[in-house]
Amino acid sequence: MFKKIMVAIDGSQSSFNALNTAIDLAKRFEAKLYLVSVVNTANLPMNVGVSYAPGLVRDLENGARDDLEKAKETVKKAGLLCNVKLLNGEPRNELTRFPQENKIDLIVMGKTGNSGLARILVGSVTRYVSERSQTNVLIVD
């Protein structure tokens, strides 16, 4: 039924609950797992036309990579392989675009996530994706 399952990872407990559910589904359906994190570069702070982006984006990307690495280790311990993707942009848009472009069959997301200054995957993102994605979405508490 599901051949490709994408999990949105933001480091929150909810996203790791979603990961555990996705692992179970991937085993059941012998599906490929895709771990995706989005650094929100669409809403970076500006001060008098000067962006704080260079150092801020790097720090946020490093944090996202750490989250993805932790998720990848969880998948590995479960005896599965996964594809890992770090995206930059507006999370709502990226999490609806990526599944469509990669022919994902199921998106698994946490009900709520971490919110930060420039990298967020919060309940409003989950809601947006669930309402606008052309891919099935499973929301995990």
Automatic annotation (TrEMBL):
Residue intervals of the UspA domain: 1-140
CDD domains: USP-like (cd00293)
Keywords: Cytoplasm
The organism's place on the tree of life at top rank: Bacteria
Subcellular location: Cytoplasm
KW Glycoprotein (keyword) present: no
Major location category of this protein: cytoplasm
Pfam families named in the record: Usp (PF00582)
InterPro entries for the chain: Rossmann-like_a/b/a_fold, Universal_stress_UspA, UspA
GO cellular component: cytoplasm
Family as reported in the entry's similarity comment: Belongs to the universal stress protein A family.
PANTHER family according to UniProt: STRESS RESPONSE PROTEIN NHAX, UNIVERSAL STRESS PROTEIN UP12
Protein name stated in the entry: Universal stress protein
Organism: Companilactobacillus suantsaicola
